[in-house]
Specification:
Largest sheet: 6 strands, antiparallel, barrel
Number of domains: 2
CATH class of the largest domain: Mainly Beta
Structural class: mainly beta
Number of helices: 6
Shape: elongated
C-alpha cells in the first residue's frame, strides 16, 4: 500500500497520500481512506434514535441556507454490530435529491445488492426538517485497495441520495464553468456542534480557488476535476459541503485538506514562508446531477478525468511541470545575464586577463539542498593572440586571480504552495590555473578553476585556443529534478 504521509481528506476520507476528509475520513473503520469522528451506540435501536434526534442550528440566522443540511449515517461493524453514527454535509440538487461525498456513504449501502438505506441515513435541514433516505442513486468510485486501484490516485468524490420525500427548500443552482484562479467562493459547511451527539452548526465560510499549486499541479485550468482552495477553515464533518460563487451557484464540492504533518514535511524540503491551509474539492464542471445527463461523471474536456495519478506535487514531494516552467524562465533570464556579463568583462579594463577567454555556463547543484541550483561560469577557450601572462609568470603555468559571476537559483513555495523561483547574481574571487605555453604548443590543455566561496566551487576541464568567431551560447537547462553535477 502506498505511504500515507502527505495529504488528508477533510470530512471522511484519507487517500494514501495522507489526505484527510472534511470531517476526518471515510465512515468505515479499516478503510484505507482514514478515520472519521463517529459516535458509538449500544445498539442499532440506539443508533437510530441518534439519527432521529439530530439537530441542525444556525451560526447566523441571516446566513443559514435552508437547502444545506447535516448528513448522518449508521455504520455497522463486519458482523452487523458495533453501530456508530458518522456525519457529513449535504445539499439539495432537487427537491428530493441531495449531493454529498461518496466517502460519506457507508460502503455496504453503495452496492445495488446491498441493504436499504432507509433507517440508515438521514439529512437534517434547519428548523428540524429531517428526511430519511429512499435510495443511493450514485456514489463515485474512490478506488483504493478494495478495487485494486493504487491509492496514489485521486478520485472524483461525490454521491447522490434520493430522499423519501421532497424538502420544502429550493435546490441550489449549479454551474459547469469550473473554478477560475483566485475566484472568491464560500463553503456552505456544517460544523460539529457537540462532542456527544452528531448535531451540526451551519456555518458558511469564505475562501478562494488557487490554481498552479504543487499540491495538485494539474489544476491549472478552470475545469480540472480536482480543485484546490485556500483558507476555507474546513474541519471535521464538512465533507460534501457545496462550494458556491458570489451568486450562490455551486462550483465544486469539498472533500479534503492538506494535513498539518504534510505542511511540516513540505517545510523541511522546500524553502517556504508560512504555508497556509489548502483544501480539496471535486470540480462541478465534471459532475452531472440526476436528470442533467446520461452519466453522473462527464468528461466535458480533457481536464475532466475520473481519477488522477499524482505523479508530481506532494505525492512524492517532487517538483511539478509548473515548477519546470518557472525554472525554464529562470534559465532564460540567466542566459541573458550571462551575455551581459561577457560584454561587461570585454569592456572593463580591470578584467583584462579574463577578457581573452570565452566563457560558458556551468550548472551545479548545491550540496546543502536539492532545491537550489548554482550557475557559475567556466572557461571554454583562450585567445592566444591577446592573452598576456602576469608579470613574473612568463614561461611558467599561468595562475590568474579573477573575479567571476555566479547566479543562485532558489526553488521554494509561497504561502499558497505555488513554486517560487528567484535568481540572485553574485561576484566571487577565483583562481584560474593552466599551462599557457603547453596550450599554445598543443592547442589544448587542462585547467583548474577554484573559488573559496560557500559552497566551494571547483571546475576542472579542458581548455583550447580560440579559433574563429564566438558561437552563440548554448541553452541553459535547469532540471526540476536534482542535478547530477
Amino acid at each position: 500500500m502506498a505511504s500515507r504521509i502527505l495529504l488528508r481528506a477533510t470530512g471522511l476520507i484519507c487517500v494514501a497520500l495522507g489526505l484527510t476528509a472534511c470531517g476526518g475520513s471515510s465512515f468505515e473503520d479499516g478503510d484505507a481512506r482514514g478515520k472519521v469522528p463517529q459516535f458509538p451506540a449500544e445498539s442499532r435501536a440506539a443508533a437510530h434514535r441518534l439519527l432521529e434526534e439530530t439537530h441542525l442550528v444556525c451560526s447566523d440566522e441571516s446566513d443559514c441556507p435552508r437547502n444545506v443540511g447535516l448528513v448522518t449515517a449508521i455504520v455497522l461493524g463486519e458482523d452487523g454490530d458495533q453501530p456508530r453514527v458518522g456525519r457529513c454535509t449535504g445539499w439539495l440538487v432537487a427537491p428530493d435529491v441531495i449531493a454529498t461525498n461518496s466517502h460519506c456513504i457507508p460502503t455496504d449501502l453503495k452496492s445495488k445488492l446491498g441493504p436499504s438505506c432507509a433507517d440508515r441515513l438521514n439529512v437534517t435541514f434547519r428548523d428540524d426538517e429531517r428526511i430519511g433516505c429512499a435510495e443511493i442513486l450514485h456514489a463515485s468510485d474512490l478506488g483504493g485497495e478494495s478495487s485494486g486501484v493504487e491509492s496514489t490516485y485521486l478520485h472524483a468524490d461525490f454521491a447522490f441520495v434520493r430522499l423519501e420525500k421532497k424538502s420544502a427548500a429550493e435546490p441550489l443552482a449549479r454551474s459547469h464553468e469550473g473554478l477560475a484562479d483566485e475566484l472568491p467562493v464560500r463553503v456552505l459547511k456544517v460544523d460539529p456542534l457537540s462532542e456527544d451527539k452528531p448535531d451540526g452548526l451551519l456555518k458558511p465560510t469564505s475562501c478562494r480557488a488557487a490554481q498552479n499549486t504543487v499540491v495538485v499541479p494539474q489544476f491549472s485550468t478552470d475545469t480540472y476535476v480536482h480543485a484546490t482552495l485556500i483558507d476555507c477553515q474546513v474541519i471535521s464533518g464538512n465533507s460534501g459541503a457545496p462550494v458556491v460563487d458570489a451568486e450562490g451557484i455551486v462550483r465544486a464540492i469539498v472533500w479534503g485538506s492538506v494535513s498539518p504533518d504534510t505542511k511540516r514535511k513540505v517545510g523541511l524540503v522546500y524553502e517556504t514562508s508560512g504555508l497556509r491551509d489548502v483544501y480539496f474539492a471535486t470540480n462541478w464542471a465534471c459532475v452531472r446531477a440526476p436528470g442533467e445527463g446520461d452519466e453522473y461523471f462527464q468528461a466535458t474536456d480533457a481536464s475532466c478525468e475520473a481519477r488522477t495519478k499524482l505523479t508530481a506535487g506532494l505525492s512524492g514531494l517532487e517538483p511539478s511541470a509548473y515548477l519546470q516552467t518557472r525554472l525554464n524562465e529562470a534559465a532564460a533570464q540567466i542566459h541573458q545575464r550571462l551575455r551581459e556579463w561577457k560584454e561587461e568583462i570585454k569592456s572593463g579594463s580591470n578584467q583584462a586577463p579574463i577578457a581573452s577567454f570565452r566563457w560558458a555556463a556551468a550548472v551545479r547543484k548545491d550540496e546543502t539542498t536539492k532545491l537550489r541550483r548554482l550557475v557559475t561560469v567556466k572557461p571554454v577557450c583562450v585567445d592566444a593572440a591577446t592573452f598576456r601572462p602576469g608579470a613574473g609568470q612568463e614561461g611558467t603555468p599561468a595562475r590568474l586571480d579573477v573575479v567571476l559571476r555566479r547566479w543562485t537559483v532558489r526553488v521554494g513555495l509561497d504561502a499558497e504552495y505555488r513554486p517560487l523561483v528567484s535568481v540572485r547574481p553574485r561576484d566571487y574571487a577565483a583562481t584560474l590555473s593552466f599551462d599557457f605555453e603547453k596550450l599554445k604548443q598543443d592547442g589544448k590543455g587542462d585547467y583548474d578553476l577554484e573559488a573559496p566561496m560557500s559552497p566551494r566551487s571547483c571546475h576542472q576541464g579542458e581548455l583550447s585556443t580560440c579559433e574563429g568567431p564566438e558561437l552563440p551560447d548554448e541553452e541553459i537547462v535547469l532540471p526540476a529534478g536534482t542535478p547530477a553535477g
